[in-house]
Amino acid sequence: MSELLTRAEASNYAETSRHSDVLAYIDELCRRTKLARRVDFGTSGEGQPLVSLIVSDRNCFTPEQARKQKKVVVMVEANIHAGEVEGKEALLALARDLTLTKLGQKVLDRVCLVLIPNFNPDGNDRISPNNRKLNLKSLEGQVNPESGVGTRYTGEGWNLNRDSMKQEAPETRAIAKLHQTWWPEVFIDCHTTDGSIHDFDLTFDTSHSNEPLFQELRDYNRAMLERVSEAVKKRHGFDSFWYGNYREEDVPTSGWHTYPALPRFGSHYRGLLGRLDVLLETYSYIDYPRRCAVMYAWLLELIREAARSAKAYLSVTQDAQDAIIARGKNPDPRELVGINYGVATRDAEGALTYDYPAYAKPGDMARIQAFDEKSIAEHRFPGKKKKVYRVPHHRTFLPTHAVSTPEGYLVPAELAPRLEGHGIRFEVLPKARSFLVDSYRVARREETFSPDVAANVPRPGEAEVPLSMKPKPVRFETVLTVAPERTTREFPQGTLYVPTAQRGGTLAVYLLEPHSDDGFCRWQFLDKQVEVGGLYPVHRVVSPAPAPKKAE
């Protein structure tokens, strides 16, 4: 029997896999082993199958079997940005090695892997050598395989890693349903990053949204990533660190700054659900084979860590889920959900824009392996001389607006499909009913541009417009200024009641509040129902105050 190779391996890393290659590879792997099964979970915008590969032993190919066997479910997504192909190639190779060699013998008994090698098949097949073409002057692009790579956006022009909250792409809606069905303890998202000049093979991160509410989970997540980073260095020789860029470009002493805590990014979205999450970003400026190798090493060690720590993974995620539900059952006005992290500014034309700054806690320092200042300033990679910088680590986010978790929300029926898309449970009022509610009076309405959310799609064979060229805006956001008021109101039959005592309770708060920087209002899904001077159409249900206890 011939050796099963990915297209990258078979071409000596001159090419990357087309979607047809991915499907053929998965089907052949499933033919050769009883440890893998193909499960399709949807269709792309251009009609291609969205495919997952379930890898486990003891015939564990369903969520029900995984729970029955008390296995940790590890979901891995690759190629969400289809110019960042290393996760796709590494994941295919690793699935083979875990099932056709002895590599998975001590792993698959404790974990069930749900692998998505090519989440953006339409973007993947728009291959061009000019996509993500290396441009160190602009700190952009990568060392490409000779034949090129796909596009950042889908065939319909969506950036899937900005779509988690609004779910406009069919790919996003499909993976959301898959995630809700499997409810993985840990999710791994594979990327490739350009940006600041440093000397790491890969940078990693996890969710940052609402850290005070999820402190135990986030502390565990970060400690786990530090352990895996050490294992990757010890066993594979790759250098890794927390994701970021220099706070002031080309100035390594200015600090190390992570990316915005907006839940439109998948990692922050899943963090609101109380799950463990991992962002992997291999480095664009190292060569393609090395990028695939470091991604493979990280995926292997993350899966090994999940197998070793299976009981702890199950426990810490269950505790986080229980806490979310408890906040809905017993609302505490002191426990606040951050729903906006933006700092508003005006550009030269007076248009509303936002920054999403991260802050450095006292004593939180980053050790950045990089090069001499002259090499960094000249955008030279590799630089002439290696140098280590100890600088403030900007990875703490402070909300500019936060709210308590109410008992529930009263929501117009038009939002039912969007709530269902997020797996958020609701009830339909069978008849008109009065509630004591906190409502919002709309005082002002503005619009702001959404950067890197969507793009005009290039014709087949043409390269996409790089971000440094500032592509034409195609998506906008609504920003409201509101004032709260408390009243008793009657709500008609058919109104939706959304309880927050559910596993998506914190996510529901973020989606439904008018101030949210990533909610239904912000994404213009309520524009037709919002008028200045009128009431915002979503209302917070006020819990009845408990009776005071008698003095003993």
Can you give a write-up of this model?
- The protein has 552 residues and is of the alpha+beta class.
- The protein is 26% helix and 25% strand.
- The chain is built from 13 helices and 22 strands.
- The protein has helices spanning 7-10, 19-32, 63-68, 86-100, 121-124, 170-182, 215-236, 266-271, 288-308, 310-329, 373-377, 416-421, 505-512; strands at 36-43, 49-55, 72-77, 111-116, 186-193, 202-205, 240-242, 245-248, 251-257, 276-283, 336-340, 343-346, 352-355, 365-371, 386-394, 401-404, 408-411, 427-428, 433-449, 476-491, 496-499, 539-541.
- The strands form five sheets. The chain has an eight-stranded mixed beta sheet, sandwiched between helices.
- A hairpin with a 5-residue loop joins β1 (36-43) and β2 (49-55).
- It is globular, with a radius of gyration of 24 Å.
- 50% of the residues are buried.
End-to-end Cα distance, whole Å, is 81 Å
How many beta-strand segments?
22
Binned, the helix content reads 25-40%
Shape: globular
Strand order within the widest beta sheet? 1-2-4-3-5-10-6-7
The major β-sheet equals: 8 strands, mixed
- Unreliable runs, pLDDT <50, ≥5 residues? 547-552
Mean pLDDT: 96
Alpha-carbon Rg, integer: 24 Å
- Distinct helical segment count: 13
> What proportion of the residues form beta strands (DSSP E)?
25-35%
Structural class designation? alpha+beta
Provide key terms for this protein.
single chain; 552 residues; alpha+beta; 25% strand
Would you kindly provide a brief summary of this structure?
With 552 residues, the chain is of the alpha+beta class.
